[in-house]
């Protein structure tokens, strides 16, 4: 049913936590592809033993570090009907895949499934990471195809792609941030549509924006946000004038004024 692709880089403790969340899944109809761009630690064999015959652990020795080429390598060997790109610091609640499978068992085979999420802030200066405050539930049920053309609304770990819609779509290895948004927009440009599943089984683990330990790249490259957004607006033209004007209004709210009537 599912192939779960996990790109990882020098975060063995976080990767093990991610795998523990997969071991706990009530639906085990999945295969795992882990692509590591570093050989500085021993693979988590004790965890992988739970997936005998259902995992590939790939050491990527070429290309620059980063998740984009690792996701592409994982996608190239994926065999499941649906592909999920799970970040190595995120986790699934135990019934997450079961709820996705129940939706798919309805028989209409949506092109893109997406779900709600939970956000847990944590202190990664200690091992294992220590939660900071309660988990916050976040609904993105109102996300539409057009709204994704305006803002990066759906975390990568919250999307299940039907495998055939990914034909010819790859990640851009030159992007420092938003390569997952660029990837999703490339799929939507093929005419695919999003289908929401009412579950919040994805847990996005974050450090505070100013924390130096294992910061997400989005936190450490804030100065690139507007530049990359503009590049994506040009690369992925909006489907209608309403969306183009909404893009323009979003930039204007940050006191940035551009004529986006053609993008």
From TrEMBL:
Pfam families per record: Glycos_transf_2
Limits of the Glycosyltransferase 2-like domain: 3-108
CDD domains on file: Glyco_tranf_GTA_type
Protein's name in the database: Glycosyltransferase family 2 protein
